[in-house]
Amino acid sequence: MLTLIPTPIGNLEDITLRAMRLFEEAELFLCEDTRETKHLLRLLQERFGMQKIDVEFLSFHEHNGTQRLIEIDTVLREKNVIYVSDAGMPAISDPGQLLVAYCQKEDIAYDVLPGANAALTAYVASGFASVAFNFFGFLPHKGAQRKEKLTSLLSMDIPTILYESPHRLLKLLEELSVLAPSRELFLAKELTKKFQNYFRGDANKAFEHFQSQNIRGEWVVIIDAKKEKINVLYMEDIVDLDIAPKIKAKLIAKLSGKSIKECYDAIITKEK
Question: Is 270 exposed, middle or buried (0-12, 13-18, 19+ CB in 10 A)?
């Protein structure tokens, strides 16, 4: 049986008694990073008296996950297997999703323990009123794909939760200050740790503020929902526009994902 166990995102005291008991009963550990997991277990033994863990540790990450599943199929069915990410809830922005999907497909028993999660912790701290929100994780690092995704997130009518590394935080805030300078943001640094820090303000103020701040550590950035009304342009509206058919075809192709030729032929047929 597989059990996915969340680990503290900062403060070691956030570990649960149930998690430590299952650690002690484990026959195999699958870890995003075996070094991080072994370090965590040593701290739990030293501070909370957890029994010493003397079992096999295997790495399980985005680069080897598919092959590893083939290797451990029998073990997943017959032994107590634990999966932990480096910090927080497994399978959120980490390869634990592969394990869950594999267990469902192969009818292997699995369980998930509740526990620490940076996105939810930061969202509660933000004070944003919306019950609904969008969790995206990490944006693409650069290029048109990043700009396109960020523009799309800014058009949403619910808040969006992002993760950001310290060396890209200023870049993100600069982009937001250009694309949506008055949009309300909430930033949380090093949640549950000694240097935990919150900031709330618009994108302009955030970019100005953090240019002179220590931005080391991992960050959660929450972008509030777009308040103004969003005008939606449908394909039927484009067809009715008084513009050349080739331009209409290009616009519709962009929206639909179809080829320009296919859209052009459909427009010509409709206009006959």
Answer: exposed
Fold entry, domain 2-112: Cobalt-precorrin-4 Transmethylase; domain 1 (3.40.1010)
Query: Please, what's the b/e burial string for 181-208 (b: 16 or more CB within 10 A of its CB; e: otherwise)?
Result: eebbbbbbbbbbeeeeeebbebbbbbbe
Closest by Cα among 130, 72, 91 to 5: 91
- Report whether 213 contacts 158 (CB < 8 A): no
Measured CA to CA, the distance from residue 9 to residue 14 in angstroms comes to 8
CATH number 3.30.950.10 given to 118-223: yes
Report the alpha-carbon distance of residue 126 to residue 255 in Å, rounded.
Answer: 34
Portions of the chain given CATH number 3.40.1010.10: 2-112
Contact between 252 and 263 (Cβ < 8 Å): yes
Q: Are the CB atoms for 142 and 117 separated by under 8 Å?
A: no
The two structure tokens encoding residue 266 = 């459909």
pLDDT tens, position by position, 161-204: 999 999 999 999 999 999 999 999 999 999 999 989 999 999 99
Q: What is the pTM of this model?
A: 0.77
- Tell me if 199 sits within 8 A of 164, measured CB to CB: no
